[in-house]
Specification:
- The complex is a heterodimer of chains A (82) and B (334).
- By secondary structure, chain A is mostly helical.
- Chain A is 57% helix and 0% strand.
- Chain A has four helices and no strands.
- Chain B folds into two domains: 1-32, no CATH class; 38-331, Rossmann fold, CATH 3.40.50.620.
- In chain B, helix 3 runs parallel beside helix 4, helix 7 packs across helix 8 and helix 13 packs antiparallel against helix 14.
- In chain B, strand 1, helix 3 and strand 2 (90-95) form a beta-alpha-beta unit.
- Chain B is α/β, with parallel strands linked by helices and 334 residues long.
- Chain B has helices spanning 28-32, 36-57, 73-85, 102-115, 126-138, 144-149, 152-171, 197-215, 226-229, 241-244, 249-257, 277-288, 294-302, 308-315, 321-331, and strands at 65-68, 90-95, 118-122, 176-178, 192-194, 237-239.
- Chain B contains 15 helices and six strands.
- The chains are: A mainly alpha (82), B alpha/beta (334).
- Chains A and B meet through helix 1 and helix 2 of A and helix 6 and helix 8 of B.
- Bound molecules: zinc ion (ZN).
- The site of zinc ion (ZN) has 8 residues of chain B, from helix 1.
C-alpha cells in the first residue's frame, strides 16, 4: 500500500505536476477539481495503471471513486490486484 | 537566448514540461510510441464500437449528434463525416467567441447549407468574454498539465465550448456529441467515450472556478448545471471521428471545398477560424518558451500524419505581428 502510494505520487509528479514541490499534492487532493487531471489525462493514467500493475480497467470503472486522488487510486489498485 | 533544442524525431522542445531525452536526442514520448500498426488496428476497433452504438441509440425525436462547429477545417470535415459517412441528423453548434474570422462565418453558413445541417450560433456578449481573455493574457489560470496542450486563452474558450455543447445535448436529449479533434489532439482511445457525469463535474469545476472569479455568474449559462449532473441517463457519448478515420490535411481541404469551404486568409497557420489565436500563441510562447500547438503537432509528426519539416514550419516562425496587434487592440492589452 505504502509502496503504491509512492509509485502513484512519482507518476503524477512526472506526468502532471512536473517540477512542482512535493507538498503541492496531498494524498487526498482531488485530481479533477484541482485541474491536475482532465478527461484526456484520465486515459494517460489508465494506460499507466494497466501497464504498471498488469490490470485491465473497464469503462465503468472510470469514476472518481476509483481514480480521483492518490489514496483512492491506491485503494483501487489494491482491490484489483488482490 | 535559451539553448532550447528539439527532439530529433517529433519536434517536442527541451522546454516542454516533463520531457527527457536519450543519448540520441529522442524524447521520452517517442521512446514510448508503439508504432503505426497498433494505431490502425485500434482505429478500426473504435469505428466498429461507434457503429454498434449507433444502432442502439439513434433517436427519432431529436438530432442524432450535436457537433461543436468552429467553422475550421477539422470540424467542417467532422460535419461531413457525420452527415455523409454515417447518415446522421446533425445540429452544428457554433460558439462565437467574438474573434471568429468573418471568412469563417461565411464558411459556416455555406457548409451548413450545403450539407443540410441545422446551425445554432451562440455569441456571448463581448464584455464577458473579453474580460476573460484579457485576464488570461496577463495571468495563469490553469494547471501545468493543461498548458502542455493549449494556451490559457484557448483553454478558457474551449472550456466554454465543451460546457455549452454538453449542456445543449442534455437539454435536447441528443445521444452523441461530436468534436473535430485531430488525431494529434486526442488519442484514439478517447474517440468513442461515454461522458461520465462525475468525472465531467470535477473537470468542469477546475475550468469554471477561475472564470467565475473573473466574470461572475455571467459565465454560468455556458456550463452544465448541478441539476443536469444528476440526470445521469441523459449523458451523451463523445465521438471524435477524426481520431479513428484516415487523416490527411490536404485530402480534407480538398474534400470540404466541395461544400463551399475556403481557407480564411485572416488567421494564423494553426487555426482556420480564430483571429485571436496568434495573440494567444504569442502570450504562451513568451510565458513558457514552447508553442501551445507543439504537443498536437509533435503527435502528428510521430505518427506520420505530418513530416518533421511540416511540423517545424507550423511552430517555429514567429506569430504574425499584425494579427497579434489586432487582438491586443481589441482587448486593450499590451
Ligand atoms: Zn519526440
Amino acid at each position: 500500500m505504502a509502496d503504491n502510494t509512492t509509485k502513484i505520487r512519482t507518476f503524477i509528479f512526472d506526468n502532471f505536476l512536473f517540477d512542482a514541490e512535493e507538498d503541492a499534492l496531498e494524498n487526498d487532493t482531488s485530481f479533477l477539481e484541482q485541474g491536475i487531471i482532465d478527461s484526456t489525462g484520465v486515459l494517460e493514467l489508465v494506460d499507466w495503471l494497466e501497464e504498471e500493475f498488469a490490470i485491465s480497467v473497464a469503462d465503468e470503472e472510470l469514476v472518481p471513486e476509483n481514480l480521483d486522488s492518490v489514496n483512492l487510486l491506491s485503494a483501487y489498485i489494491t482491490r484489483k490486484t488482490s | 537566448m535559451s539553448d532550447r533544442f528539439l527532439c530529433q524525431q517529433c519536434i517536442l522542445p527541451s522546454t516542454f514540461p516533463g520531457i527527457s531525452f536519450n543519448e540520441k536526442g529522442v524524447c521520452n514520448h517517442c521512446q514510448r510510441y508503439k508504432g503505426e500498426d497498433a494505431t490502425v488496428a485500434l482505429q478500426e476497433k473504435y469505428e466498429q464500437k461507434f457503429l454498434k452504438l449507433l444502432e442502439e441509440r439513434k433517436t427519432k425525436s431529436s438530432y442524432d449528434v450535436i457537433v461543436a462547429y468552429s467553422g475550421g477545417k477539422d470540424s467542417t470535415y467532422t460535419l461531413d463525416v457525420f452527415v455523409n459517412r454515417y447518415q446522421l441528423r446533425v445540429l452544428a453548434l457554433t460558439f462565437d467567441n467574438t474573434f471568429i474570422s468573418p471568412k469563417a462565418l461565411v464558411n459556416i453558413g455555406k457548409v451548413c447549407g450545403s450539407l443540410g445541417v441545422d446551425s445554432l450560433i451562440i455569441k456571448p456578449a463581448p464584455q464577458v468574454l473579453r474580460k476573460i481573455f484579457r485576464t488570461a493574457a496577463t495571468q495563469e489560470l490553469y494547471s501545468a498539465k493543461t498548458l502542455e496542450r493549449a494556451s490559457t486563452i484557448c483553454t478558457s474558450c474551449i472550456g466554454m465550448v465543451k460546457g455549452i455543447v454538453l449542456r445543449t445535448a442534455l437539454e435536447k436529449h441528443i445521444p452523441f456529441v461530436g468534436f473535430g479533434w485531430s488525431p494529434g489532439q486526442a488519442p484514439v482511445q478517447s474517440s468513442v467515450m461515454r461522458t461520465n457525469p462525475a468525472l465531467m463535474q470535477g473537470t468542469q469545476k477546475a475550468i469554471l472556478k477561475p472564470l467565475l472569479e473573473i466574470a461572475g455568474d455571467a459565465v454560468l449559462p455556458y456550463f452544465v448545471t448541478e441539476e443536469q449532473f444528476t440526470q445521469k441517463e441523459l449523458f451523451p457519448w463523445n465521438i471524435h471521428p477524426l481520431a479513428f478515420l484516415h487523416y490527411d490535411e490536404q485530402d480534407i481541404t480538398e474534400r470540404i471545398s466541395q461544400f463551399g469551404w475556403e481557407r480564411p486568409n485572416d488567421t494564423d497557420p494553426n487555426s482556420s477560424n480564430c483571429t485571436l489565436n496568434a495573440f494567444a500563441n504569442q502570450v504562451h510562447r513568451k510565458r513558457y518558451d514552447f508553442h501551445p500547438y507543439v504537443w498536437e503537432i509533435a503527435n502528428m509528426v510521430r505518427t506520420g500524419v505530418l513530416s518533421r519539416e511540416e511540423g517545424i514550419e507550423k511552430i517555429e516562425p514567429p506569430e504574425d505581428i499584425k494579427m497579434v496587434a489586432y487582438s491586443q487592440k481589441e482587448l486593450g492589452v499590451d
